[in-house]
């Protein structure tokens, strides 16, 4: 993790993400409006906001899954908005993404799905199926499954797994990618309350252990408070709330939504 010095000589983590006047329009509708944001390496940031506030658009814009209309995105030392396609692909390989939909290949085993994560750094038939993979890649994929508590279902087809189990496999695939940053877009939204809490706890725990930066969106306020260091609130395409999770309260966070709905 890169460090920088402040005036008294103490070292602090350097920003791994800096947004400057970021805007995104869909036709005449402006979804993101002059977003300014810095995120320190190794921190866990939660995004909250009502449906349509721009959370998913913001997350996807960071790696240009959504093309920004204007502004600047600096991510992991790169000017994302200026990258050519080949360089953008390289940058994306350094960023793990966990979606609400698990995006697994249902007819394949959990182990093979996790092995697909190696495509971020190598290509070819050895990353298509576990029977073609090298021993070292299979061993690494098994370690990733073990990290999420799914080593016992490695050879099961993922269409036989529960929603929570499938999301764990998706997280293991992301770990196989060896990312430096993780973007998670409502990973708990399609799960029952217990499974959702387990997934959020797992993401937070793993990213802290590996010193990864996590940016996660969620509608569940208790998850927002417990599994982040900082809470960013979006309303009408702008950042209107920015506070440490430790000093937040459920009452204040609910008021954030009520005030914007009024």
Characterization of this structure:
The structure is a single chain. This protein is α/β, with parallel strands linked by helices. The protein has 8 helices and 12 strands. The strands form 3 sheets. Strands 8-9-10-5-11-12 form a 6-stranded mixed β-sheet, with helices on both faces. It has a 4-stranded antiparallel β-sheet with strand order 4-3-6-7, covered by helices on one side. Strands 1-2 form a two-stranded antiparallel ribbon. The longest helix has 17 residues, at 193-209. It is globular, with a radius of gyration of 19 Å.
Helix and strand topology:
Layout: E1 3-5, E2 11-13, E3 15-26, E4 29-40, E5 44-48, H1 55-61, E6 70-75, E7 78-79, H2 85-92, E8 95-98, H3 110-115, H4 135-147, H5 163-176, E9 181-185, H6 193-209, E10 213-217, H7 221-226, E11 230-235, E12 238-244, H8 250-261
Parallel strand pairs: 5-10, 5-11, 8-9, 9-10
Antiparallel strand pairs: 1-2, 3-4, 3-6, 6-7, 11-12
Helix pairs in contact: 4-5, 5-6
| Proportion of residues in extended strands | 25-35%
Number of helices: 8
Structure summary, number of beta strands: 12
Mean pLDDT: 87
Note the overall shape.
globular
Strand order of the largest sheet: 8-9-10-5-11-12
* N-to-C span: 42 Å
* Rg: 19 Å
- Biggest sheet: strands, sense, closure? 6 strands, mixed
Low-confidence blocks of residues: 1-6
Structural class: alpha/beta
Percent of residues in helices comes to 25-40%
Order of helices and strands: EEEEEHEEHEHHHEHEHEEH
């Amino acid at each position: 993790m890169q460090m920088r010095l402040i005036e008294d000589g103490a070292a602090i983590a350097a920003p791994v993400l800096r947004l400057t006047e970021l805007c995104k329009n869909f036709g005449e509708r402006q979804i993101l409006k002059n977003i300014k944001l810095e995120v320190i390496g190794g921190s866990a940031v939660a995004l909250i906001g009502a449906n349509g506030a721009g959370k998913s658009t913001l997350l996807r814009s960071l790696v240009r899954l959504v093309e920004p209309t204007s502004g600047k995105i600096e991510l992991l030392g790169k000017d994302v908005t200026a990258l050519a396609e080949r360089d953008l692909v390289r940058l994306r390989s350094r960023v793990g993404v966990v979606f609400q939909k698990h995006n697994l290949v249902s007819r394949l085993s959990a182990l093979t799905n996790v092995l697909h994560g190696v495509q971020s750094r190598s290509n070819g038939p050895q990353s298509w199926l576990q029977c073609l993979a090298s021993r070292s890649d299979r061993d690494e994929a098994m370690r990733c499954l073990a990290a999420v508590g799914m080593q016992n279902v490695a050879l099961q087809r993922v269409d036989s797994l529960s929603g929570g189990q499938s999301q764990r496999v998706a997280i293991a695939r992301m770990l196989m990618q060896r990312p430096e940053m993780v973007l998670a877009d409502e990973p708990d939204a399609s799960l029952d309350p217990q499974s959702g809490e387990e997934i959020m706890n797992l993401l937070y725990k793993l990213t802290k252990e590996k010193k990864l930066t996590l940016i996660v969106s969620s509608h569940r306020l208790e998850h927002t408070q417990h599994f982040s260091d900082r809470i960013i609130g979006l309303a009408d395409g702008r950042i209107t709330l920015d506070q440490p999770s430790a000093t937040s309260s459920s009452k204040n966070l609910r008021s954030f939504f009520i005030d914007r709905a009024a």
